[in-house]
Amino acid sequence: MRSATLLLLCAGVMLAGCSTITPDIGDTSLKAPQRWLSERQLIDHVQCQLGQAIRIAAKEDEHNLSTTDPKYRATWLRGWGAKVSLAIAVDDKAGFTPGVTLNDPLENAVSVFAKNGNVTTGQSRSLGFGATLSSEATRTETIGFFYPFADMVDDKVVDYEACSKSQGHFLSSDLKIDDFVGKGMSVANTSGVLYRKPGESPYQTFTYEVKFIVTQGASITPAWKLLRVSADQSGTLFAGQKMRTDDLTITMGKVDKDPVTSATTPSSALDQQHLANLIGQSVANALQGRPQQ
Question: For 95-116, what is the mean pLDDT?
């Protein structure tokens, strides 16, 4: 009993010393200004690839001027824009589960039989103790942007066509936004596929999402088995896990222009669809963490 008390006291000290801190986002080997710079480069990368996709679609529409019925032209693209949400989340988990069992060997029991000899059976009694500590810290950063496509097409400052296809892994890689927009334009430019009024878009909105989930984990389970005491014979003594989620959501739709200030703002349809997308993603992410019934 004294041994168990001592071991549980040691476990209590370890539990008291275990704390949860706010996780870092980005490369922890870099200092704050460099980490912020890398996130800014990620934002620039997303903006540049979106602008590149819109310019490619606009140029393709001009290239098909002589072969495409004006009714199916993509001139409506200038009256559209995109709401972009970039969410970066880090989830750190740690668990500490010590277990100790006290073993008390007893005398063997001997069963006496008249024939074929006696039977000896080993006996012992045991008492187990355990403790559990788990901690979880989550950090989420969400950034939203709005880009009118007319500004991207007419922009003479940013060279969207020079965007790098790949700067690294995950969201820094080729996001293939141009492939998504190109497919939408191809369907819209084909007669008889989608109903539309001349000069107007056959779409109300469309959404593009790219998500990367990266999970890292480690565990350690030392075990002891002595005559009277055994520890951590089953289960995991310590386990840690870090999960990072990068989620990019782009919702495209019509924009409105203020007749007085000429300011361009998202249309109500674009706002509502983008909000619905974000709510749906939040519900899906919450359900992922629930145990199955």
Answer: 88
